[in-house]
Design a protein that fits this description.
about 35% helix; 4 helices; about 140 residues
């Protein structure tokens, strides 16, 4: 049986690969993703909605790298909390963000069944709006 720590590391590795296939592979077929805090107004996303959400966000970033700063594991409850930062390059400059992830694992601990992502909402909202607007302008040329 896999451990929660192994699955959490697999998730970090998947995001560091920055491919949709790898990112989705670590999630269970029933995984629900929550982007928090609730004040952002984001609705919970099943895998289909999460793919539609994340796919356009992959394009603007190069060399996306997550760095884990702290990990709390509760094997009995099948939960992992991660404090991470990210770095990447974009056409508009460097990207740096901070996250707290609470991951709930499947019973066999091989997949993420519930993904709660706290983001630096002020930074994320501003930068993503600029990046997506830039991408839209580029694709319309």
């Amino acid at each position: 049986m896999a451990s929660c720590s192994q699955t959490a590391q697999a998730l970090v590795t998947a995001y560091n690969s920055w491919t949709l296939e790898n990112i989705m592979d670590v999630r269970s077929s029933d995984c629900i993703n929550y982007i928090l805090p609730h004040s952002l107004g984001r609705k919970p996303m099943d895998n289909e909605h999460y793919m539609a959400f994340i796919a356009p966000r992959l394009r603007p970033f190069r060399n996306f790298t997550l760095t884990v700063h702290d990990t709390v594991v509760d094997e009995a409850a099948r939960k992992v909390v991660l404090h991470l930062t990210s770095t990447a390059s974009t056409e508009l400059g460097d990207y740096n963000n901070e996250y707290m992830l609470k991951l709930h694992m499947t019973e066999d601990r091989r997949k993420v069944d519930k993904f709660e992502e706290f983001v630096d909402s002020g930074y994320s909202s501003k930068v993503m709006k600029e990046l997506l607007k830039h991408q839209s302008r580029k694709s319309s040329l």
